[in-house]
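Your task
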Amino acid sequence: MKMLPLYAKAVLKALPLGTAKTGPMPSRTIMRSVPIEAASYAGFTNVVGAGLGNIVHPGYLHVLAFPLSMQLLSDPEVPLPMMGMVHIHNRIDVHGPVRVGDVVDLHVRLDGPYQHKSGTTLDILVEGKVDGVVKMVETTTYLAKGRTLPEAKPRAGIEREEFTAPTPTAVWHLDPIIGTRYARASGDYNPIHLSGLAARGFGFPRVIAHGMYSASRALAAVDTRLEDYRWDVTFAKPVLLPSTVGFAITEGRRHEAAKFAVFDLRKGRPHVLSEVSELR
């Protein structure tokens, strides 16, 4: 699926005379079967620093569903603008390995809206099956800052633990080209990751790294060997490019259940907070 037309459609919807609606949230579902091709997966693993094995990184499963998610969010009947939405949380439950060459049957739907202290959130719910067996369930949460909807439902917020920056076990030097490289690998051509002008239009002084790039690279560094697990990600302060950031496991250990973070080396503030926990 070509993503640039979806972003153009989203920009038009966000304009004052655009196509944004004010009615209730529509019920929308998309189903599609997507093969995991070796060349495309190799491109993703190269960008995020994951080993090129036969078992697919769950960040790539997010990538498979991403165009369908954007198709739902850019629907003119959705009463919130896709452009300017902030990806604040991601959860993927992995129910066994998905392998290169598998065909993943995706079921993607909208959920919400929900009240949030900073606006309104929407969830994209994804179920991925291989040969009729559920292999992944994902919830991606987007925040429309400063937007309220009368039908938005209350929901308990995600509690963020107090963060004290640890001694980094790795230091990442991130150049602006990483935005282009991840866009090519993932299909996410949101202009705030590619254009300084677009980034400034949304309040950022420079282009910002894709949140799922940082999260997927962090998970690749942990290299979990669990077979059934939950991967939670909370996005905090965006990573401006170019930038040098720290990575560390803050609890647990590599290959197992763990908490880990990507953080600002100078100020000690978190960029991405992640946790891998065993599903029982």
Observations:
- The helical segments are 4-14, 38-48, 58-73, 177-186, 196-201, 211-222.
- The two ends are 36 Å apart (CA to CA).
